[in-house]
# Entry
Amino acid sequence: MKCRKCGQKASVNMRQHKLALCKEHYLEWLPEQTERFIKKYEMFTHNDKILVAVSGGKDSLSLWDLLVRLGYRADGLYIGLGIDGGIGYSAESHRLAKKFADQNGLVLNLVDVEKEYGQPIPMLAETSTRGQGRPCSVCGLTKRHAMNRIARDLGYDVLATGHNLDDEAAVLFGNTLHWSVDYLARQGPVLPATPGLARKVKPLCRFYEREMTAYALLRGIEYIYDECPYALGATSIYYKEILNRLENDRPGAKLTFYLSFLEARKRGLVAGSENFAPELHACPHCGQPTSAPGLCSFCRMMERAAQVA
Ligand code: Q46
Ligand code: ZN
Ligand code: ZN
# Structure
């Protein structure tokens, strides 16, 4: 395989784009494409203050790297979940996120769940009725709450996450299997700001997972290889495997699935989100917008955890 631009030996072959590139040209191509998607979906401009949620994994660190290389004002946010799983998962992912920030002279905000909320995620999950024994539901709720809080308190305009195409296609697959119309109506590269909540964007949503792995490796970004121990057996991983089989037989199937969905959504074929926008009010405890009556789901969970403790 030869690089389409220079004819040298290719490092990355993207069957879905019928494009092979050498290291140098791949490291040019990916930021160019990222910039194109940021503009196409009107994610943010160079005047916006961006907060990147970094987990220490390849996607979020690469996203941070890309935004900084493209000249955007982007700080990081690391959320310490207190997950060990026999591999020191949180400690190691924090070390790598911090290392990346230090090496590049970037600001990394930190929320330590145990210090700030009293218990680490695995303990919170034990006292919660959410997620049937799996901590992911509690974890997701806590991460969303912490991200929204930091974005609001520190005045960030945009919250950027490193979800890639494989993540988005798996979520879309699940939402379609269940015809979760309200989730479908809200799924997309940009979730507009609402009073009290920053805009949320996913600049990597059109890149395959393997494209992001290639970027991180070629850029020499040190990231945590291990998945969170609780990811094992998650439904989203099962969906990813199914989609990978499809992709293997039909290169580009995953991208077409996602892009056709975005197109259908734009044309109003997925019920307009305005019909599903729930009535929001400010949670009387934390002030974040919520559709739940009274306290928001996060504050209710914390109230229950305090009662059990
Ligand atoms: S970190 Fe948290 Fe994930 Fe681990 S506990 Fe589940 S949700 S799997 S992205
Ligand atoms: Zn080349
Ligand atoms: Zn609340």
Observations:
- The two ends are 60 Å apart (CA to CA).
- The pocket of zinc ion (ligand 3) is lined by residues 283, 285-286, 288, 295-296, 298-299 (CB under 6 Å).
- DSSP finds 13 helices and ten strands in the chain.
